[in-house]
Amino acid sequence: MIPGAFDYHRPATVEDAVGLLAKLGEEANILAGGHSLIPLMKTRLASPEHLVDISGIGDLKGIAVRGEEIVIGAMTTQFELITSHDLEKHLPVIAETSRLIADPQIRYKGTFGGNVANGDPGNDMPALMMCLGATYAVTGPGGSRDIAARDFYQGAYFTSLEHGDILTEVRIPIPPADHGYAYEKLKRKVGDYATAAAAVAITMADGKCTSASIGLTNVSETPLWASAAAELLVGTNLDKASVDAAVAAAEAITEPATDMRGPSEYRTKMAGVMMRRALERAQSRAKG
Amino acid sequence: MNDQTKIDQDRAERTEKLQGMGCKRKRVEDIRFTQGKGSYVDDLKLPGMLFGDFVRSPHAHARIKSIDTSRAKALPGVVAVLTAADLKPLGLHYMPTLAGDVQAVLAEEKVLFQNQEVAFVIAEDRYIASDATELVDVDYEALPCIVDPFRSMDEDAPILREDIQDKMEGAHGPRKHPNHIFEWQIGDKDATDKVFAEADVTIKEMLVDHRTHPSPLETCQSVASFDKVKGELTLWGTFQAPHVIRTVVSLISGLPEHKIHVIAPDIGGGFGNKVGAYAGYVCSVVGSIVLGVPVKWVEDRMENLSTTSFARDYHMTTELAATKDGKIQGMRVHVLADHGAFDACADPSKWPAGFMNICTGSYDIPTAHLVVDGVYTNKASGGVAYRCSFRVTEAVFAIERAVELLAEKLGMDAAELRIKNFIKPEQFPYKSALGWEYDSGDYHTAMKKAMDTVGYKELRAEQAKKREAFKRGETREIMGIGISFFTEIVGAGPSKNCDILGVAMFDSAEIRIHPTGSVIARMGTKSQGQGHETTYAQIIATEIGIPADDIMIEEGNTDTAPYGLGTYGSRSTPVAGAATAVSARKIKAKAQMIAAHMLEVHEGDLEWDVDRFRVKGLPEKFKTMKEIAWASYNAPPPNMEPGLEAVNYYEPPNMTYPFGAYFCVMDIDVDTGVAKTRRFYALDDCGTRINPMVIEGQVHGGLTEAFACAMGQEIRYDEHGNVMGASFMDFFLPTAVETPHWETDHTVTPSPHHPIGAKGVGESPHVGGVPCFSNAVNDAYAFLGAGHIQMPHDAWRLWQVGEKLGLHA
Amino acid sequence: MTKSQIELTINGKKVEALVEPRTLLIHFLREQQDLTGAHIGCDTGHCGACTVEMDDMSVKSCMTFAVQANGAEITTIEGMANPDGTLSALQEGFRMMHGLQCGYCTPGMILRAHRLLQENPTPTEDEIRNGIAGNLCRCTGYVNIVKAIQYAAAKINGTPYQEAAE
Questions:
Q1: Which of C2, C46, C57 sits opposite A108 (nearest CB)?
Q2: Has residue C166 got a pLDDT over 70?
Q3: How far is CA B398 from the centre of its chain?
């Protein structure tokens, strides 16, 4: 398996990268970690004439606490997410999710930005970002703008990004310290995409659920934010009947493809099972 | 310390120094492998070497209307593009298969499976070759395809093999339909039918051993280099059987065999994938002959999984008849064998269904009848022995699932039913109803040891409790106990039974002692990771008393190694291992004569003592093997030819029959269908154990492959004949995380006919492992009335079982 | 397409080369640098046979363009032996514990284990199994690879290696 030929560019700044992409046009692709793009190129499902490697742009790396938000640079790797103290303290669900992505080698190179932005419904971070209410900062030919994760995903490999746009950073509101969280992923083996996966974040007070947010991975053309399901939980003590109703509401919005991971109906049910298990674990972690 | 203790101690020290049979000698291969200094085919770089790549069919069945290579040829760096039109004048557009069929090298008028080879591009490097494959324009007319083998012989089925449409007499008898390959029968049909008609209890089940692939980590590859001046061809390749490849290349190319040098360097795993001959080998050879420069061909993984030699695809309707107290009286099996587009099974030539007739297993079943029908479909060809002797995994799967189904029907414990029907130690050599003579076995001892070690009774008690808890709704997990008691048949084989294209399946060893007492030995086999360089040396060390570290083992070069049939079907130890021992004994016999001459005594006055001959009763008078070696070159006895070497071509008198008792404990989450193997215990009896460390490694590896096959690994096709999931994303190769922890154990029942009593072990764990996992899964669901659950047991399929049983409400 | 000039350090040696941008790092190492220890097993980034060390990361070199390694420090299996040429602790561990058979996955496995031990000098069995989950072995069933890495860890840490009870 051999990729097609291309010209290679390695800009040093976001402005240069945006300028290059504008100049080179539709036949140019961004190269971040490369672990999604290169396999596509090797099977010739993608044959870009130009690759713009953004790994030389220092501004795109790093994890910082900024006010009430955690800010993660787009070129931060999965490995860096797993080893970050800031995330461990404020958003441990990110490391929990990262550990379930691909395998150790790929996590050194695979980037957070690539995972959230390339639009592959199999990626794990998008559903989590929708669950956590993240905001994506994008720079393009027309300047910079923010897009809510929950508005970002339009279809398989189709997002709100337009040609020439670069995702620069992701801002995530820091949840209350006593929140409960979990990411549950069913996969066939290490390195696989999810058969189905669920991200859950909740807060509890006096045994009652005070807020809930749920994201689902790889059970539709896009990651899903199961807002109706989450609403059914708020105000309940997460009793079986309420959880059953929420699971049913979540399953109802899934439309998974039948693939080697199993038939559509199985994957829908697994979305429900993963959500139920994530909720149980989140509840056990929530204080209050 | 008294004298005897001293003598014993001295003998023990000398024995240990030899690093001979029975010790955990560290592998000599590892010195180079751990430093990245192995030399595999793709490591080879020759001056002027070109690189070949295939244009492949996107269709499962289509007529080729035209092939236009002009755009590809115009690409700078492209040297040639071969199609069937180029090969046909040379008579090379088809090649013979090991099964008596022919196989297209490059498709001529039709393609018969997706990814079939259509054109071969040769370019200056692999990047250009890959680019050029995109520039060959092939015009296809799609045809209706056959994916389901049960439709192959339908009256209105499209005829797949137009090239042999009128040839209704196949290599193995008459064909019943243009898409039929052979019918193979063995056993007594009338007697078996009678037993079934009169039996107290019978079971019948269609057991599917699904299509999968051996998938070694190194794909198939070759480098051909033709010297036009000398008229000689050198062919390096991933060959489990280099000598057979040389003979095949000679037969199809017309080059004399002595002008073909076939070299199998280090091989990155084989598991049956590298036994056959493939289009890529032939095209690299043709390319080099035509162009006069070396041509390399390297398969990528997608090509490997979708074109070169699948395994299994056996649909086995299996029946047992028994008395009501559980004595098995008869077995009846019909197999529908899906061979794909060409019959390219790698079996001994007389055995179109391999050794499927070992399917009576470890049991004394007096009457049996087996029929196998092979058919063509629009899938890749193959049917190779994936880490097993020919079709033995299939056979053992059939009997080991069937006895469980019988036990269930009788309400008997599955272990107890097995023990009741075992062939008894005193019955060996045992003649089976389907024609084999089992050389030796002690099944009762092995089974008892295994059951005691795993605590079988306690496990059943735990399971009973868990089942009650499940019924009460206290747990969503069910527990399965898998048992498999297998008998393998390996070491092909005696020439009365076994040949490949007419060459008897002997194997060989040539041992040469140098004047200083070091040794080179060459065999006709070829290691692909089994550690032959280490273990053959141990046999020689013990036999002739020269330290294994002073013995170099060489295989894989057909110019230097004696002719042999190669390594597959666990035949290296049973056949070439025997040749090694016999060859060593020839040397020892000559050495004894030399020693007698040196010590001025009669040969009969000498006794062997670890590494020397000593005079009986005069322990201080002796000659070491090293001294004898020098003498053989320096001052041999009068009338004796100098030198010390021997060769043996070993014709095995019988196959060997390793066996084992395996137990698996599994917990299955009914809500997701995810199965977790809590414990796996494997007791193997492979006769004499040459290197326990290597044996343990073989067992670990075989169990891992069995686990993969049973629990998810498959090559699947959609209804259009598109091959699904031909990459390591979908094709299940477990990582260290999914792979269970393996426990190993053994008993030792030496083979009575093998010179050192060894039986072979590399494939037993796979053969025994597959049914053990499947039995564990089936056992877990049995109390819910699930019936037989087909493999592979991946999560979604097990979830569907639960869904059907109403477990998810 | 324009070729790119790259400069990198491989096994401690400075290397300058002109490469086509699409040249994969694995092909650059194997074919231009004659370092054939790393292998290609799957072509899709799943098997890890092509693993090399790049700037303190284990990297799949068949999923990396050589141009992406510009300026990097790379270690391959050919650079893993001790300076005096003897086998390093990991190489020795793989041999002593029978952690390899056909040898094809071994260079990638050792390079991955090397990084794992750099980050976690005393890994548990579970940590080892997860740590090498990006490397497939078709021969060994992993039990002895785990032991090989434990053996090496013990040797590096100067603690006695104790084989876990079966």
A1: C57
A2: no
A3: 18
Q: Distance between CA B741 and CA B458 in Å, rounded?
A: 21
Does the beta-carbon distance from B799 to A266 stay under 8 Å?
yes
Strands B674-685 and B180-187: unpaired
**By the CB < 8 Å criterion, does B46 face chain C?**
no
The reported pLDDT for the residue numbered C165 is 44
Fold classified for C89-157: DNA polymerase; domain 1 (1.10.150)
Q: What's the pLDDT tens digit per position in C50-74?
A: 999 999 999 999 999 999 999 999 9
Interface of B with C in 97-126 (CB under 8 A): 126
pLDDT band at A272 (very low <50, low <70, confident <90, very high): very high
Would the CB atoms of A189 and B732 count as touching at under 8 Å?
Answer: yes
Query: Chain C within 8 Å of A187 (Cβ-Cβ)?
Result: no
CA distance B110 to chain C (A): 29
Three-state secondary structure readout of B748-778:
CCCCCCCCCCECCCCCHHHHHHHHHHHHHHH
Helix (H) or strand (E) holding B215: none
CATH of C4-79, one of 3.40.630.30, 3.30.465.10, 3.10.20.30, 3.40.50.10420: 3.10.20.30
Exposure string of B164-176, with b = 16+ CB inside 10 Å and e = fewer, is: beeeeebbbeebe
Q: What parts of chain B have a pLDDT lower than 50?
A: none
CA C5 to chain centre: 25
**CATH number for the segment(s) A181-283:** 3.30.390.50
What average pLDDT does the segment A236-242 reach? 97
For chain B, list the contacting chains (3+ Cβ pairs, <8 Å).
A, C
Mapped onto helix, strand or coil, the DSSP state of residue C78 is helix
Q: CB-based contact (8 Å) between A190 and chain C? A: yes
**How far apart are the CA of B39 and the nearest CA of chain A, in angstroms?**
22
pLDDT at site B809? 76
- Over residues A89-136, the pLDDT tens digits come to 999 999 999 999 999 999 999 999 999 999 999 999 999 999 999 999
Q: What pLDDT digit, counting tens, does each position of B563-592 carry?
A: 999 999 999 999 999 999 999 999 999 999
Question: A103 — contact with chain C (CB < 8 Å)?
Answer: yes
Cβ–Cβ < 8 Å for B383, B342: no
Q: What is the CATH number of domain B310-492+655-804?
A: 3.30.365.10
| Active site amino acids of B | 240, 387-388, 763
Q: What is the spatial distance between Cα B618 and Cα B6, in angstroms, rounded to a whole number?
A: 16
Chains contacting chain A through 3 or more C-beta pairs under 8 A = B, C
Q: How far apart are CA B768 and CA B702, in angstroms?
A: 9
Confidence of residue A288 (pLDDT cuts 50, 70, 90): low
B-chain residue closest to A3, CA distance: B127
Enumerate the domain spans of chain C: 4-79, 89-157
- Pairing status of strand B507-513 against strand B519-523: antiparallel
Superfamily of domain B48-145+218-268+274-306, CATH level 4: Aldehyde oxidase/xanthine dehydrogenase, a/b hammerhead (3.90.1170.50)
